[in-house]
From TrEMBL:
Protein name as annotated: Cytochrome P450
Assigned keywords, A-Z: Heme, Iron, Metal-binding, Monooxygenase, Oxidoreductase
Keyword flag Lyase: no
Signal peptide annotation: none
Cofactor: heme
Single GO MF descriptor: oxidoreductase activity, acting on paired donors, with incorporation or reduction of molecular oxygen
Family: Belongs to the cytochrome P450 family.
InterPro entries for this protein: Cyt_P450, Cyt_P450_CS, Cyt_P450_E_grp-I, Cyt_P450_sf, Cytochrome_P450_monoxygenase
Residues holding heme: C457
Organism: Eremomyces bilateralis CBS 781.70
High-level lineage: Eukaryota, Fungi, Dikarya, Ascomycota, Pezizomycotina
Gene3D superfamilies: Cytochrome P450
Pfam entry (one): p450
Coiled-coil ranges per UniProt: none
């Protein structure tokens, strides 16, 4: 018996020995069960992952989960165990099973910690109840259609013009700069003007005036790490964080973010109540829903506040990551860079592209631009972790393997985007031409940049509009060169697949 190991020579177990022996014996039995009798025991993976979530937490702070996942799948195959009750699947064909609208695999409790603390209903991302999610999303879904976004295209142009003026300044000074930082400023300002017609000042001043992005840099690793911890352990896990000044500062910064979003909503509410005319931004459209159909839809001011808070919290990160990835890979592949610039110049000369601002509908006519954007986002999606779901009641067969109900299953976009059966034998290489020579429809179907099924990112069209408009304007106006072409960017995959250290110099092009 295990307890006898802790007994003294006389055979009696003391209270201190009992206090030590019970948890140790329980842990040993739990490990034995997880590694031999658990339904997932047959799947390979890291030792710590077979009986705990410690391996996932470690990878958060290492910032390399996408690399770790790819290595494990390469070694063990399409299904690996990444926690005692969770597997990662690399086979792209599983997308239709796990993220289908027809057979819903519910979101796991990973997402509940991301819910705005003051919300009546979870925001669209953190909602785990599919019925509630569908009902709440339908209320505002039309505001995020491309048609609706294009009604505010001029606002995106305002931010683009400011971004290019700042590039003028940097080019004139001959300084190198981190492009990832400036794209973060740009994407954050676009959220500001689209939602409530104001910028935060980051782009104008060249630093984080609002303090929000700096706060998120500090908080997000801990925040996402907490999401992997069992719900009953999260308070215990988060408590030590309050001992560190940087974390306390980040929490204060997020408090300011909440205050800022609430203040913007309150200001707009006063304008609406006073009958004063406001610009038709997203916030204005939300207030129209509230005023005209609020009671019918159970849509109150606090629900508007949740939309704004969620947009500020997560609305700029993945867009900035995608913008950076596109330019980074183009600079790393000069032939592709030159080919895209040639396409942009020819379209400008032919009068297809407007000046100074390229319209979204015009950018859609540039096939090589589209291919470059897709290819960069394929290699470096904004989310670099598995997107976990619960297997529904009754269990399901996925990629020929049976999984009991309640098991967590998920696909990491930064793994499945490397599936050679879909993207070709050179799937680990940047090659925009694959989108012309291969089955582009099938490849598109297996892309998870913006999610899939009913949980596709609601702000997808905002991100695409920013990307398609800014990239050609930037490359038409400037020649971008890496300070050190041999240097790799810095990556920190904390769930958002963040990047930094893309140091470039910009010089004004004579053709712009």
């Amino acid at each position: 018996m295990l307890l006898s190991l802790f007994a003294p020579p006389e055979g009696k177990i003391s209270i201190p020995s009992l206090i030590v022996s019970v948890p140790v014996c329980s842990l040993v039995l739990w490990i034995v069960y997880c590694r031999t009798l658990h339904p997932l025991a047959k799947y390979p993976g890291p030792f710590l992952a077979s009986f705990s979530r410690i391996w996932q937490l470690y990878r958060v702070f290492q910032g390399d989960m996408d690399v770790a996942h790819r290595d494990l799948h390469h070694r063990y195959g399409p299904v690996i165990r990444i926690a005692y009750d969770e597997v990662s699947i690399s086979d792209a064909s599983a997308i239709k099973d796990i993220y289908s609208a027809a057979d819903v695999f519910a979101k796991t409790d990973f997402y509940t910690l991301l819910r705005p603390p003051f919300a009546r209903y979870p925001d669209h991302f953190s909602s785990t109840d599919e019925k509630v999610h569908g009902q709440r999303r339908r209320i505002v879904n039309s505001l995020y259609s491309m048609t609706s976004v294009m009604e505010s295209e001029g606002c995106i142009d305002q931010v683009s013009e400011l971004f290019l003026r700042r590039m003028d300044d940097l080019a004139g000074e001959g300084k190198f700069f981190d492009l990832a930082t400036w794209f973060q400023f740009y994407a954050f300002e676009v959220i500001g003007v689209l939602y409530f017609n104001k910028m935060f000042g980051n782009l104008e001043n060249g630093w984080d005036v609002s303090g929000v992005t700096t706060a998120l840099d500090t908080l997000l690793p801990i925040h996402f790490a907490s999401c992997f911890v069992q719900r009953y352990l999260r308070p215990v896990f988060l408590l030590p964080g309050s001992l560190f000044s940087r974390v306390r500062g980040a929490i204060r910064g997020l408090s300011k973010l909440r205050d800022a979003s609430l203040a913007c909503v309150a200001e707009r509410k006063n304008l609406v109540q006073d009958g004063r005319k406001t610009r038709a931004d997203i916030l204005d459209k939300m207030f129209r829903i509230y005023e005209e159909r609020g009671k019918e839809l159970d849509y109150n001011v606090i629900d508007v506040e949740v939309e704004i808070y969620a947009a500020l919290f997560a609305g700029s990160d993945t867009t900035a990551i995608s913008l950076t990835a596109i330019i980074y890979h183009l600079m790393k592949h000069p032939n592709a860079y030159d080919k895209l610039v040639e396409e942009i110049d020819k379209a400008t000369d032919a009068g297809i592209l407007s000046q100074p601002n390229i319209r979204h509908e015009e950018a859609m006519k540039l096939p090589y631009l589209d291919a470059c954007c897709k290819e960069a986002m394929r290699l470096h999606p904004g989310i670099g972790w598995t997107v976990p779901r619960y297997v529904p009641k009754g269990g399901r067969t996925i990629v020929g393997q049976w999984f009991d109900e309640g098991i967590r299953v998920g696909i990491n976009p930064a793994v499945t985007h490397f599936d050679r059966s879909v993207f070709g034998e050179d799937a680990d290489q940047f090659n925009p031409d694959r989108w012309f020579r291969g089955d582009s429809v099938n490849m598109e179907k297996h892309m998870l940049v913006f999610g899939a099924g009913p949980r596709t990112c609601i702000a997808k069209n905002i991100a695409l509009a920013e990307i398609r408009k800014l990239i050609p304007q930037l490359l038409r106006a400037y020649q971008l060169e890496m300070v050190d072409p041999g240097k790799e960017w810095k990556r920190a995959n904390i769930w958002f697949n963040r990047v930094s250290g893309v140091e470039v110099r910009a010089s004004k092009r004579s053709t712009s």
